[in-house]
Amino acid sequence: MKKILLIFYIIVIGLVFTSGYSQSKISNTHSSLEKPYHPSDDAQAKINQLVVQARKEKKYVILQAGGNWCSWCLIFYDFIQKNHTIRTYLSQNYLYYHLNYSNENKNEAIFEKYAPQGSSLGYPFFIVLDEKGKVVWIQESGSLEEGKGYSETKVMNFLKKARHLQSKG
To answer: 43-163 has which CATH code?
Structure first.
């Protein structure tokens, strides 16, 4: 009976150690990713500037809602930086802004203005504005995932679909 208990304890300790190791490895991977969100930004002023620029350049604006605390937000940012096809399409068709949501700055008025239902979507989620600053699309990110990252095909489909929508109003 003592042998069985000893084996049980060894297995439990091994599982705890392995689980802790895996979590710290994942955390370390995400902690090394660039942090694109800036809680101190005047987000509305930045969005206003982007809309003026979008009108001149005939582009749309994407607001990636999230924060530096959100691993999936950082993974998405890393994905679009490293994926040439996505990065090229974005630069040709969109202006991009990381709309911060964190304890430091929740940007509540901006989220209420552009995506009042946003908190139910999880993070990140994306708000697409046309060149007039009107919301044309809100996209959750879960359906864009593939494995432990994002799917080029799914992200590209979202970007193309959102770009070809017209705002109402």
So the answer is: 3.40.30.10
